Please model this.
Amino acid sequence: MLHLQGAQTASILHVNEHCVQQREDVLAAEEPLEIRLHWEENGKPQRQTVSITMRTPGHDLELAVGFLYTENILQGPHQIRNVQHCGPAASAANVVRVTLQPNVKANVESLKRHFYTSSSCGICGKASLEAVQICSSRPPLQQHFQIKPDLIYSLSNRLAKQQELFLRTGGLHASTLFDLEGNLLCLREDVGRHNALDKLVGASLSQLPLSTNILLLSGRASFELIQKAFMASIPMVAAVGAPSSLAVQLAEQMGITLLGFVREHRFNIYSHSQRIQLAERNKRELS
Model:
């Protein structure tokens, strides 16, 4: 099996109604990543594994710091001393060490939970009620702007042109950050939709809060993705797929404009429609 950047190739048998052929197929790479947090407490070094996540290798350092931020363990890049893979050995490529500044104390309450994250489900065993409480401790987003529907229509096409690994494998999710003019600022891919968003937030950590940006998700919008978007202060989330009921409830509560089924000429608005500039005739049809 050959390794590509973020992908692997495998020899397969391709079957159709006419013949059976041996081919090379490109697969999305999936490997475990352990995130370790190091800090000092009362002059004594402390260490704890905070997550073991199944992810697509690449942008691991961004994934680590983005995860720590969106899970409310850290409050910003100023708390981090350095981030690095643990060593030169091959196994160390799957371990990231995040060391805090000497005067920073880790959020021990958050660290009491040991995270195991699969590539599909997010954080297993993490209570949604606890995540709601994290969000509820912050005020809802209040950003005032309006986006024309034509810009929203164009986002999925812009994503498709840039999603390189998905085009090769067909098995990756993407999180993409746009500005209010529709310019693509950052794109990250991963087998886990939550990992893709954590990588994106980690890559944008020095620009937080992301209060004048649009987040485009390549698949469905789950509760956990809305929570992570809120932690990064992203006021508009557009998903190519459907949102869940809890995602809609959280978006409404937290002041996020949530769009679903974003296609070339249509989309649904699930919450806070005031940020979409609707034509007067559309407004009359709604009244």
Notes: The chain has nine helices and 15 strands. The mean pLDDT is 84. The chain has two domains: 31-136, 149-286. The radius of gyration is 20 Å.
